[in-house]
Design brief:
Mean pLDDT: 93
Bound molecules: zinc ion
Strand order of the largest sheet: 5-4-9-2-1-13-17-15
Shape: globular
Helix content: 10-25%
Low-confidence stretches: 1-20
Number of strands: 31
Length: 680
């Protein structure tokens, strides 16, 4: 318990509060209380306490000895009618209850209801539809009572006590994005349940503007996602197990892993791209398209599988009235698809480290050819670069589709043009391979992705990695009362949701690199990705894992970045020289501590420069001197750094020269101060 001394001091100060003058109290307080009490642990919340107690997670940050997660087997048949924009589906889900408890309920996600009128949402939607209509739902062969309104999974009397036990499953909240099925018989641990559902919905029209992660352009192009009723995550973290967060539109998803066998029935002449691997090319593709596809893995060049002038049944696809496209995806958390009678189909390949070559499929409208010209190359670079950075891409293909959403990700499937291809491909690592809860902790997918996109862009330009800047820049944001801390449920992230989910994590990781080195950060993140591959890490697992992998007690770092909106706000207060020694007085006005890093620039001639133990020379007249964060743990806001380089005249000192530590005003980091105003 590292912060206990501060608690003791505070109590001591309190005990000395006598009925004396307020100025005497102030003197006592300033003498006995630290100027800044630095918290150095990662405070547990109830959910992580429960997981530790159950042994499902522990302080190594790795999955615990009792870790478990559900598995799903989905078999889905869906039919699209372009004339009405309606998708009609039926599915069979085998829920594997791998948990340690019996399930009395099943929570289902009906995300399509976000388009219905009178549904809570945080985003404007491009179209109001009648939502997701469930026409039949059964559990283990027993038909459920279907209720649109919410009202609890179980009937209860006025005092809330359960009424008579159910005799049949009871589905409530079918008009909302999160529905609940009460079960007459619980699903015992280590057993399965079979859920069968029939449903339909109208794909929302998007006239101009952007779709909300899906939609249709007229009756010729469809991006279909959030399209089948799916079982919510039941994990070891939530009270009661089920994740019951509504889909409000801004925050994204949290899904179980499983196997999907999907059959999509569309008119002949419509090309379908989907999560998974096409199982029946001989039934849906022309011989010409199959022949062209057979050469995709031979080189990095882009081949046309179906060209802009090849339209209609028997030309863009196999002949017929309607065709059923059959895809299988194993160990994925979701499936999405796109279809159009106007899609041009290009393909190229990516070479995943380890040697496997996979196809990159690109489906776009002929009129958008220029916007898609570099998609193959960008997607390939992302797949290859992130495979090396974190761990190899695990899926057998990737498909990029044009449509109303130009920046959304699903397993093996992204809705994107050239601009977002790197970012959306990056999501194949988080959340697709590392199954984080995006709804609550957007920073663990969007934020980490933004950080790696910086590295990928530099790599694609053959530039060295450089994440100087973002860490310091957080100081200009800190203090904004609209900012929710990273651990705050991003589903309710408020006006600064984008900053919370996307903007802050690259700043955090820039600072972490300033503490431990950037290569150490990416190596530890790579190990974290491998440890949680196809599992569900929490932010606590991540923080504990990183501290362990980096072999440092980084509790202080995680506390301030995850739990607070505090900054460092450092400055150089003064510099004095006596003999060969120069004393630099550094101050931190913020609540977050940081190491002290000083760039010392010497005169070009004079006495020989003698290195200090905590210094390194970057050229013959420049030294970087580093003091660890520990110098602040005594509680003072000022620290005197004594430099002794043998007496060579010091011309300039810059604190935080790599711009890693959150600072509202970096101009006071420079001595002499005049040097700051002289900066260009
Ligand atoms: Zn994203």
């Amino acid at each position: 318990m590292t912060n206990r001394p501060f608690v003791a001091l505070t109590l001591f100060a309190g005990a000395l509060f006598l009925p004396s003058s307020s100025s005497a109290q102030a003197i006592l307080k300033s003498a006995l209380k630290p100027e800044r009490a630095i918290r150095r642990d990662i405070p547990p919340t109830n959910m992580i306490r429960r997981a530790f107690a159950a042994g499902t997670r522990d302080s190594t940050g790795r999955p615990g000895r009792n870790y478990w997660q559900l598995w799903m087997d989905y078999t889905i048949n869906a039919r699209l009618e372009p004339a009405t924009s309606r998708v009609t589906g039926r599915e069979s889900i085998v829920l594997h209850n791998n948990s340690d408890s019996a399930m009395r309920t099943i929570v289902m996600r009906l995300d399509q209801n976000i388009y219905a009128a009178n549904v809570p949402r945080a985003e404007q939607v491009p179209d109001i539809t009648d939502g997701m209509k469930i026409t039949r739902l059964s559990v283990n062969g027993q038909n459920a009572e279907l209720r649109t309104e919410a009202g609890g999974c179980f009937p209860s009397n006025r005092s809330g006590a359960p009424a008579a036990p159910l005799t049949a499953p009871r589905a409530t909240g079918l008009g909302l994005t999160s529905a609940c099925i009460g079960l007459p018989t619980p699903i015992a641990p280590k057993t399965t349940a079979k859920i069968e559902v029939e449903w339909n919905f109208k794909v929302p029209h998007v006239e101009g503007g952007r779709g909300l992660r899906m939609g249709t352009w007229g009756d010729t192009l469809y991006q279909v996602a959030q399209w089948y009723p799916r079982v919510a995550v039941f994990d070891d973290l939530r009270t009661g197990g089920w994740d019951t967060e509504p889909y409000l539109g801004t925050s994204e998803f949290y899904n179980n892993y499983g196997r999907f066998d999907i059959s999509i029935d569309v008119p002949a002449g419509w090309i379908v791209g989907s999560t998974g691997v096409l199982q029946n090319p001989e039934q849906v593709l022309t011989a010409k398209a199959r022949e062209r596809s057979s050469h995709v893995l031979e080189s990095d060049s882009t081949r046309t599988i179906v060209g802009a002038n090849e339209r209609g049944p028997g030309v863009s696809t196999a002949a017929g009235d309607r065709l059923v496209w059959h895809f299988v995806a194993d160990t994925v958390s979701d499936v999405a698809w796109g279809t159009s009678n106007q899609y041009v189909w290009d393909a190229t390949r990516a070479t995943i480290p380890g040697g496997s070559k996979i196809p990159v499929h690109i489906l776009y409208l002929g009129g958008h050819a220029s916007g898609y010209a570099s998609v193959g190359q960008r997607t390939r670079h992302a797949l290859e670069f992130y495979s090396k950075l974190w761990m190899p891409y695990a899926f057998p293909q990737i498909t990029v589709v044009d449509g109303p959403d130009g920046g959304m990700e699903y397993p093996m499937f992204i809705m994107s043009g050239a601009g977002a291809a790197d970012h959306e491909t990056g999501h194949e690592w988080w959340p697709m391979m590392v199954g984080v809860n995006e709804t609550w902790y957007g920073f663990m997918d969007e934020g980490f992705n933004q950080y790696m996109n910086i590295l990928s862009a530099q790599d694609s330009r053959n530039q060295p990695r450089n994440v100087d800047g973002p860490g310091q820049a957080y100081g200009r944001v800190s203090g904004d009362e609209r900012e929710a801390p990273l651990l705050w449920d991003a589903n309710y992230g408020g006006p600064m949701y984008s900053f919370q989910a996307y903007g802050k994590a690259p700043m955090m990781l820039s600072m972490l690199g300033g503490v431990v080195g950037d290569t150490a950060v990416t190596n530890a993140m790579s190990d974290y990705a491998k440890a949680w591959r196809f599992k569900h890490p929490s932010p606590w697992d991540y923080a504990f894992f990183m501290s362990s992998a980096l072999k440092q007690d980084l509790g202080w770092f995680w506390y301030y970045w995850l739990y607070t909106t505090d900054a460092v706000n450092g400055s150089i207060q003064g510099v004095s020289t006596a003999g060969t020694k120069t004393t630099v007085t550094v101050r931190q006005d913020g609540e977050m501590p940081s190491p002290v890093v000083l760039k010392v620039q010497f005169a070009s001639s004079g006495k020989a420069i003698k290195a200090m133990a905590n210094s390194r020379m970057t050229d013959s007249v420049t030294a970087i001197v580093t003091y660890p964060v520990d110098v602040w743990f005594s509680g003072s806001r000022t620290f005197k750094a004594t430099l002794d380089f043998g007496g060579r005249k010091i011309e300039k000192i810059t604190m935080d020269p790599f711009a890693r530590f959150p600072d509202k005003d970096p101009t006071d980091n420079v001595w002499p101060r005049a040097a700051a105003s002289a900066l260009p």
